[in-house]
Design brief:
The protein is α+β, with helices and mostly antiparallel strands. The protein contains two helices and five strands.
Length: 82
Protein backbone atom coordinates (compact mmCIF):
# COMPACT_ATOMS: atom_id res chain seq x y z
CA UNK A 1 0.00 0.00 0.00
CA UNK A 2 1.27 3.44 -0.89
CA UNK A 3 1.59 5.93 1.94
CA UNK A 4 -1.39 8.35 1.72
CA UNK A 5 0.91 11.35 2.20
CA UNK A 6 3.03 10.25 -0.76
CA UNK A 7 -0.07 9.72 -2.86
CA UNK A 8 -1.16 13.31 -2.14
CA UNK A 9 2.00 14.76 -3.68
CA UNK A 10 2.33 12.42 -6.68
CA UNK A 11 1.10 13.54 -10.08
CA UNK A 12 1.45 12.47 -13.68
CA UNK A 13 4.95 13.51 -14.85
CA UNK A 14 3.60 14.26 -18.31
CA UNK A 15 0.46 16.31 -17.65
CA UNK A 16 0.70 17.06 -13.91
CA UNK A 17 -2.80 15.65 -13.40
CA UNK A 18 -3.60 14.05 -10.08
CA UNK A 19 -3.31 10.28 -9.72
CA UNK A 20 -5.29 7.92 -7.51
CA UNK A 21 -5.14 4.25 -6.66
CA UNK A 22 -6.69 2.18 -9.44
CA UNK A 23 -9.56 -0.16 -8.58
CA UNK A 24 -8.67 -3.80 -8.00
CA UNK A 25 -10.92 -4.81 -10.91
CA UNK A 26 -8.80 -2.76 -13.35
CA UNK A 27 -5.56 -4.24 -12.01
CA UNK A 28 -7.00 -7.77 -12.34
CA UNK A 29 -8.01 -7.07 -15.93
CA UNK A 30 -4.57 -5.68 -16.80
CA UNK A 31 -2.87 -8.65 -15.13
CA UNK A 32 -4.89 -10.99 -17.37
CA UNK A 33 -3.47 -9.13 -20.36
CA UNK A 34 0.04 -9.40 -18.86
CA UNK A 35 -0.41 -13.19 -18.59
CA UNK A 36 -1.53 -13.31 -22.23
CA UNK A 37 1.45 -11.20 -23.33
CA UNK A 38 -0.89 -8.52 -24.69
CA UNK A 39 -0.13 -5.51 -22.47
CA UNK A 40 2.21 -2.84 -23.84
CA UNK A 41 3.53 0.29 -22.12
CA UNK A 42 3.92 3.77 -23.64
CA UNK A 43 7.51 3.00 -24.54
CA UNK A 44 6.30 0.17 -26.79
CA UNK A 45 7.66 -2.60 -24.57
CA UNK A 46 5.67 -5.59 -23.41
CA UNK A 47 4.69 -5.51 -19.75
CA UNK A 48 6.03 -8.83 -18.46
CA UNK A 49 5.66 -8.42 -14.69
CA UNK A 50 2.36 -8.70 -12.87
CA UNK A 51 1.11 -5.39 -11.46
CA UNK A 52 0.76 -5.15 -7.69
CA UNK A 53 -1.38 -2.06 -8.18
CA UNK A 54 -1.51 1.11 -10.19
CA UNK A 55 -1.97 4.85 -10.08
CA UNK A 56 -4.69 6.00 -12.42
CA UNK A 57 -4.34 9.45 -13.95
CA UNK A 58 -7.32 11.77 -13.32
CA UNK A 59 -8.49 11.57 -16.96
CA UNK A 60 -8.48 7.75 -16.82
CA UNK A 61 -6.29 7.41 -19.91
CA UNK A 62 -3.03 6.26 -18.29
CA UNK A 63 -2.02 3.98 -15.45
CA UNK A 64 1.36 4.08 -13.73
CA UNK A 65 2.30 0.63 -12.42
CA UNK A 66 2.98 -0.08 -8.76
CA UNK A 67 5.40 -2.88 -7.98
CA UNK A 68 6.32 -3.91 -4.44
CA UNK A 69 4.51 -0.80 -3.13
CA UNK A 70 6.70 1.47 -5.28
CA UNK A 71 5.00 3.61 -7.96
CA UNK A 72 6.84 3.63 -11.28
CA UNK A 73 6.26 7.22 -12.41
CA UNK A 74 8.14 7.09 -15.72
CA UNK A 75 6.26 8.21 -18.84
CA UNK A 76 7.60 5.34 -20.95
CA UNK A 77 6.51 2.79 -18.30
CA UNK A 78 2.94 4.15 -18.18
CA UNK A 79 0.21 1.89 -19.52
CA UNK A 80 -2.24 3.50 -21.94
CA UNK A 81 -5.87 2.57 -21.22
CA UNK A 82 -7.64 3.82 -24.30
Amino acid sequence: MIDPQLLEILCCPETRQDVAMAPDSLIASLNERVAEGKLVNRGGGAVREKLDGGLLRADGKVLYPVREDIPVMLIEEAIPLG
